[in-house]
């Protein structure tokens, strides 16, 4: 099955309710229109892919090579450009704009991003190792522990040691698209996705569950200006009662 994808920015997390009372935690991703800046084919590049440009930046921040590359697509300089492989390139044209409606509600997607950086951390936080006794008589608390045997008198490659944690490429697979809001360029994805707020994320069709599509969730909407008749009657009765009290006073 052909894949599709789009670039966006993670805005944060919230929760929505279905009409049957179910709570769903979702990540809000802002997807401004993406521009197809390059089309790669097997004949010219050895594989099929499209290159997407996302988020316009100032022209002075682009070099001559970037300006020439994007001029072919007749678009402004872009802050991010990423490839989406496995697509049907015959469905795309150079300079074409893709919006959030690329995906439908109920589809399964894989979301990639750069995880939050945690700095230099020990093995307990970094690898979830157990600590030693915390009493003052113990000489082992939060250390690494044994680094190996006496022979071959060296530390083997791959030994879990303290070091930099986070800020690495992470992909969370098989997430459900809960809602697509084209007028706000927003897509709601069930669960959490990698990275801090305002970070770049890449949304692609799920590679493991490409044929799975769940039923559309009927969400509760809180945006309405309509006044129910019962509420209007109650408001009128309260106003009449307040008016009569003022007259009696």
Automatic annotation (TrEMBL):
Function recorded in the entry: One of the primary rRNA binding proteins, it binds directly near the 3'-end of the 23S rRNA, where it nucleates assembly of the 50S subunit.
Region ranges (Disordered): 223-249
GO cellular component terms listed in the entry, alphabetical order: cytosolic large ribosomal subunit
Record key words, sorted: Ribonucleoprotein, Ribosomal protein, RNA-binding, rRNA-binding
Matching InterPro entries: Ribosomal_uL3 (IPR000597), Ribosomal_uL3_bac/org-type (IPR019927), Ribosomal_uL3_CS (IPR019926), Transl_B-barrel_sf (IPR009000)
Pfam family, one: Ribosomal_L3
UniProt KW Ribosomal protein keyword: yes
MF-aspect GO terms: rRNA binding; structural constituent of ribosome
Name of the featured protein: Large ribosomal subunit protein uL3
The protein's assembly and partners: Part of the 50S ribosomal subunit. Forms a cluster with proteins L14 and L19.
The encoding gene: rplC
Keyword flag Nucleus: no
NCBIfam families hit by this protein: L3_bact
GO process annotations (BP): translation
Family: Belongs to the universal ribosomal protein uL3 family.
UniProt-listed Gene3D superfamilies: 3.30.160.810, Translation factors (2.40.30.10)
Membrane-spanning intervals of the chain: none
Biased composition (Acidic residues): 239-249
